[in-house]
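To: structure desk
From: M.T.
Subject: fold request, one chain
Message: Could you run this one when you get a chance? Sequence is below, nothing fancy, just the single chain.
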Amino acid sequence: MSGPETDAPGLPRLARHDWFYVGGEYVDDGAFMAGQMYVERFTPAAKSKPVPVVMIHGGVQTGTNFLATADGRPGWVYDFVGAGYEVLLVDQPERGRSGHRLTDGAPAPQFRYTADRTSDYFTDPAPAALWPQAARHTQWPGTGRKGDPVFDRFYASQVGQLADRTEIERLARDGVVALLDEIGDAILCTHSQSGPFGWLIADARPERVKAILSIEPNGPPFKDVEFLGAPDWFRYGEAWAREWGLTRLPLTFDPPAATPADLEPTLQPAAGPDLAPGILPAGPKRRLANLSGVPILILTGEASYHAPYDHVTSAFLDWAQVPHDFRRLEDLGLPGNSHMIMMESNSSAVAAVLTDWLAARGL
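Reply: Done. Structure tokens follow.
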């Protein structure tokens, strides 16, 4: 999958396009470096916004998701640059151009998604019909299946990722914190797996994070939903996925929580038709004070596997006394999106929703 030419007609002009690395540490008695994060910077010639946007990709992806769509249109990087924002695009540590550490002479355990799983969850969910909203998908540019050139280009961009999801959170949090320590204030744009990174980064650097655009953040709280198809649709397993509700790593609650059990996670009934039940804290409210002053938008597509449960993530933030906006794209006149929103046919229209939301908050 290739990006658009930077001098193509209609693309915003850049004053600077460069790259650098942040974070990382020397390991193995100083022989190697690990944990460093690749950052690519796009500075518009007509820069008009004072706070840059850091775009953080999701699982088994790299930053290429935001550079161009699989059918060759300019990606969100150029939508935001055209709106006057400097954009910093990252590859998560231990992913893509950020490199890979060797453990005992071999890469740490990794995993990938199969092509069929990618279709069923990302690009063509209707045939599998694993959740009620899947049939409403209309926005992927192509069949979303193997053999279609748009899908094949997209699937070629999928990569392996660390199997240790807690380590993924730690490395990504530390990498972006190191970036903010270098560049200063920023707006975070997260997607899917990187959703929890936004909460952790803002918790660590609340004075630096000026807003979070959380596109279908990894969730729901505490456990993963298992999608069964009709008629039962949803089930929760035994395994805890995000022990601290929104994240695998601890967040700063007030009053403090010594262990995840202090939050008293309890299964709640579904809030409405076609929605999954949710696990939410039943104990006394604990405020996520470091997040409470950060403008937050959670945005969800109509046909995505997030559509049945992102409202539970929103409910957790309500419980934690974190003001935020939760919006469904179909309610904004943009129906039919699945999970890879930045890659779909209406990607620029969705980007305009994001930049308009920032503009309304003086950002």
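Reply (cont.): Residues 116 and 140 are 15 Å apart (CA to CA). Let me know if you need anything else for the meeting.
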